[in-house]
Design brief:
The chain is an all-alpha fold.
Length: about 350
Amino acid sequence: MQIGERIAFYRQRRGYTQSQLAGLVGRSTDWLSKIERGERQLRRVDVLTELAGALRVSLGDLMGQPVLMEEDDERDNIPAIRDALMAPGRLSRVLFASDAAAPPDLRQAEQLVEFLWADYQRGRIGEVVERLPRLIHSAQQIEDAATGQAPDVRRRSWAMSARTHHLAATTLSKVGEADLSWIAAERAMKAADEADDPLVLASAARAATHALLAVGRYDDALSLGETAARWLGPQVAAGDPEALSLLGMLHLRTAVAAARRQDRAGADELLGQAERSAVRLGEDGNYWQTGFGPTNVELHRLSAGLDLGDMSWVAKRGEDVDVAHLPVERQVTHMIDLARALSFLARDDDAVDLVERIISSS
């Protein structure tokens, strides 16, 4: 869809008339009507930002940030993921205690969730979507059996569930299921609380910031990210590379939240904090599937610039960033961001060429 069509889509979803939305941004109904029909072009970032705020969506939504949709074959398992997350048995362990099934092998479940995380980073979203329903069911059964287990087994059980629901939240956000992503993120946080491990909790908080960003709750994303970052203090002080990576990613996600609410100073400060963590880490690592390091900081700086309207800067600088050594998912996200900037600058041929490169390499 073109920008005008997206505006019309989100306006109707919010229940606004053209007159109401036009009034919210101080424009005439005729102006908005022409924008929606494509008779008038809209390339001013400040106006797009106003519209995004009124419609309670991100600037990327209106600009055409791609959403990965399920495949057309038999691997559309989003309804099955929804059923797994919203099963009545998850509402009360007391009411449904008699329905509890024997749990699967914990070690195998731990291995499977890490295997699927690797698939996610390779860009194999279809495979992850296909296998998530069964993995979520396994995590639920392992949760049910955790009570009464030895302390180490109990903590591992809850950590496995937190990792599973984190993966679900991140994947669901990728395919445009923002509300389901929030449900999965909430489950990840609750499981992480029980796991009694600050790294598991910080990782789950990262999932929740993704979900909050997806539904446009930028202030809440900032609050959660900053709180989780403080929680990592002792591990960061000790120089733990896993903690440094999680801290850096929390700062990067909150920097994006600040940029989307048009807080340039806040975004710059958070990016600076992430950069300091990357310098301490000294590499582009992948602890906890963060892909964190100096290059990822640069990619988020470009992403924040995109949300702040610095299209020319993003297009110029983005073409010089080497991402070949990063996980495929990060490479593709960067190329999409760059294509969006090129398209906004009316460099449509360059944007199309870049998208075709993404498709041919996938």
